[in-house]
Input
Amino acid sequence: MLAAKTELKNAQKVKEYLLKKELIHPDFLLVKEFDFLYFPLAEKIKKIPLAEIINTKFSFPPKEKKPSFEEILKGKLTLQELEMLPKSQEIVGSILILEIPPELRKKEKMIADACLKLHPQIKTIVRKDHKHEGTYRTRKVVVLAGENTKETIHHESGVDIKVHLEKTYFSARSGNERLRIAKQVKKWEEVLVMFSGVGIYPLVIAKHSPVKHVNAIEINPFAHQYARENIELNHLADRITLYLGDVWKILPRLNQSFDRIVMPLPMTGEDFLHLALGASKKNAVIHLYQFLKEKEIPEKKKHLVERCKKLGFAVKILRVVKCGQFSPGVFRVCFDIKVT
Ligand SMILES: C[S@@+](CC[C@H](N)C(=O)[O-])C[C@H]1O[C@@H](n2cnc3c(N)ncnc32)[C@H](O)[C@@H]1O
Output
């Protein structure tokens, strides 16, 4: 078999070269023999620095191949049924959240068992029953397989976050967006996270920025309790203050103004915009989330500037970031708004 033979002392450099050029055969393991290392090659090539290209007499040991979801379910579901399953599933801690179309309800237990086999790190499979709803933005889930629990600890950007999938809102899919916000935060800023849920925004901000202190307001008592546990769990309780209650009532009572206000409540967050503007220092940045279709974004951008102007505030939209998908064709969009 075609291989790159190199002395052990050069192995790291050769490996880096082969990886960069995507030349290592993905199906086989490399072989070490005496003072040499043999990399299985995916294609013919003339020259590799610090290595000799040879045809080995031995065959490389094959990598153990994990069966795919489709392979595990082959014979149990028709091709049409396989097509109906969502291509990616959300994983929160050790729980995998399945979206099962109504047509496959009768086979959901078998599908969930297949998921457990496929992901050894997953302990529980749940089916989401509804979309997020109500003031607390929560939803029902049904345990289909594995441990009978709806609580787990999720790891995101170096933060451990304990969540209950039914009593609290949490979306693992917003991890990159939270980090994007955290990376903008400066040491001297006074930060407020409205609608803070189980505390993930304040925690990621405290962990990934030099800021001294973050304030957070959440109305769901369960989420607030989890947030209290989470700031302890991450040893960040001295840098985060959590308020339980309605932003309408709590924010005026704080009698404070902020350099940055995060508003992760896409459905109705805009109703709180005048409160956020009123609590903003000069040059503050507001991160306002919305659910929008692509074609609605430019109009919304204009509308936000005009709305702020009517409320007596000049603003500039620094950027508009599409940071997730709510439903087919509808995006989670963040407007980074500078109060000038
Ligand atoms: C979409 S979730 C976001 C939670 C969290 N920031 C996250 O990203 O995981 C919105 C949160 O806002 C809370 N909420 C809704 N209305 C509120 C209000 N008037 N005052 C404070 N919190 C509120 C809900 O309970 C929910 O936890």
